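Residues pack. One example:


***
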Amino acid sequence: MSASAPAPRQVSEREARQVAEAAREQDWRKPSFAKELFLGRFRLDLIHPHPLPAADDVQRGEEFLAKLSDFCETIDSARIEREAQIPDEVIDGLKELGALGMKIDTKYGGLGLTQVYYNKALALVGSANPALGALLSAHQSIGVPQPLKMFGTAEQKEKFLPRCARTDITAFLLTEPDVGSDPARLATSAVPTEDGSEYVLDGVKLWTTNGVVADLLVVMARVPKSEGHKGGITAFVVETNSEGVTVENRNAFMGLRGLENGVTRFHQVRVPAENRIGPEGAGLKIALTTLNTGRLSLPAMCVGAGKWCLKIAREWSAVREQWGKPIAKHEAVGSKIAFIAATTFALEAVVDLSSQMADENRNDIRIEAALAKLYGSEMGWLMADELVQIRGGRGFETAESLAARGERAVPAEQVLRDLRINRIFEGSTEIMHLLIAREAVDAHLSVAGDIIDPDKSLGDKARAGAKAGGFYARWLPKLVAGPGQLPTSYAEFGDLAGHLRYVERSARKLARATFMAMARWQGRMETKQGFLGRIVDIGAELFAMSAACVRAEMLRSQGDENGRAAHQLADAFCRQSRIRVEELFGRLWSNTDDIDRRVVDGVLGGAYTWLEQGIVDPSGDGPWIADATPGPSKAENVHRPIR
C-alpha cells in the first residue's frame, strides 16, 4: 500500500492569485514592443532600425567566442551521455576560460559580456552538449550572480561575485515536492533568531539544477510574520557546505543526462542575515524580475539546436537517395527542411533582437523574453522532431549504435530528448501562456479591473466604469484602420513589406478579439486558458515575423553577403507563420474547449475507467508526491563539489 505524504500547506485559489500578482512588476516605466502589439499598436519604430551592439562589445564577445569554440571542439559529448556526468576537467576548463563569469562585471573578475554574446556563448556550448549549456545558464541566468547584480548590496557583490566569476558554481532553489508553479504553497521556512543575526532554514527543495555540484545556492524560503519581521517568501544566499545542508539524491531524466540536478534538504541551517537578498517578502519579485532577461538563455540554446538540426538535415538529405533522387528533392522531406531553416532564422532573430534590447535597457522586455522562451522551446522541439523524421530509422537509433555498425554517430534522438525539458522548466508552456496573457491584458485590468473585482464597492465600480469608458472611447476607434491597409506601407522592406502590413492588421484584430472576450467573460476570463493560450500564440507568431523581417532588412541594408538569402528565409518563415496565425484566429471562437471540460469531468469522475481495461501498469509503488516533512536527513549526502 502506498505511503502518503503529509498534508501540504492549504492555500485558496484566491490567495494563490494574490501571491502571484504581488510578485509582478506593477509598472511599465519603459516602452514595450510586445505590450503594444497585444494592444493592437504595431510600434515598428521600437525595433527598427535593428539595434546594434557597440564595437568594443562585439570585439570582446567575438574574442571570447573564438576561445570557447576551440574548447568546445575538445569536449567528448558522447562520454557525457554515456557516463551521465560532465567530467570535472570540462568544468575546470570552462572555469579557466572565465565562462562562469560571462555576465559578471569585470570589476568582480567576470568577462562583462553583453546579453547578446552571453546568449551566443550558450548556443555554442549547448551545441557541444546541452547539459553544459544548462549548467552555465542555471549558474548565471537564475543562480547567485543575476539576483545579486540586480538586488544585492555592495557588500554582497564584493563577497560573492568574484567567487561566482571564477570558481563557485551556483544554483537556484524554489521548487519543492508539492510546490511547482504555485509558490503560495511554499513550505520551506526561514525563522529569524531572537537577536535577528541569522535565519534558520528548514525544508526540502526539488529539481535543483546544479544543486549536486553547487558551492552557493539562492534559496527561496518563507519567513513567518512576527514583530519586526514583515515575513513572506524571501531570497537567501546559502553556502552549500553549511551544516544541515544535504543533497539527498541526484535525479536522472530522459534527456540532459549530464545535468547535476537533485533533491536538497535543509535542517536547522543557520544563514547570516546579511545573506538575505533584498527585504523580507521580496523573494518572488526578485525571482520574476531576474527571469525577465534570464529566460533568454533557454531560447538561445534552442537556436543552437536549430542550427545543428539544419546542418544535419542538409548533409543527410543530400546524400540519402530514394526513388532516383536525394530525399531533399522529395516535397514531403523538403518541406521539413524548409521549416527548420526558416524557423531557425526567425528564432535567432527573436533572441538577438530581444537580447540587444535588454543590453540597451531602453525598452521593457519582460513580454519579449517570455515570448522568446515560449516560442523557442516549442519550435526547438518541433525542429528536432522533424530532423528525427528526416533521418528515419537512423533518427531513432542512438549515436553509439550507429557508430558500432560503421555509420556516422549522429545524436538526433538525443537532441530530441534533451530539448523536451525546455517546454517544462523555467515556466512550462502552459504557465508561460498565463503569465504572458496577464501582462498582455494589463492595460485593460488597470482601467477596468475594479469593475469585475467582487470585493470592490459599488462606488469603486462606478469610478472604474467611468475611467474605462474614457480609455475605450479613445482606444477602440484606433483598431478599425491602420497602415496595414495601405499598399505602400513599409515599402523600405521590399518583398517583406506585405508581411509587416499583415502583422499590423493582425495586431489590431488580436486586440479586438481580446476586448470581445473580456466583454463576454469578464471575471471568468482568467479561467479561459485555452483562449488565452491562443491569444498568446498569435502574439508570439507576430513578434517572430516582425523580428525576422527587421533582421533580414538589417542584413540587406548593411550590404551583408547573406542579405538576399536572409530575405528569402524571412519570406518563407512569414508565409509559414501566417498559416499558423490564421488557424489560431479561427480556433479562438471555434474550438472544443467546452466539450473538453465535460470530458475531463467525466475522466475525474470515473465515467471512463472502462477504457483503461486491458493493460498492465508497470509503474512502481510509492506516493505520487514524496514526503517533504522537515527534519534531519536520513540519506547519504551526494553533494559533489568540483574544486
Observations:
- The longest strand covers residues 198-209.
- DSSP finds 23 helices and ten strands in the chain.
- The longest helix spans residues 331-360.
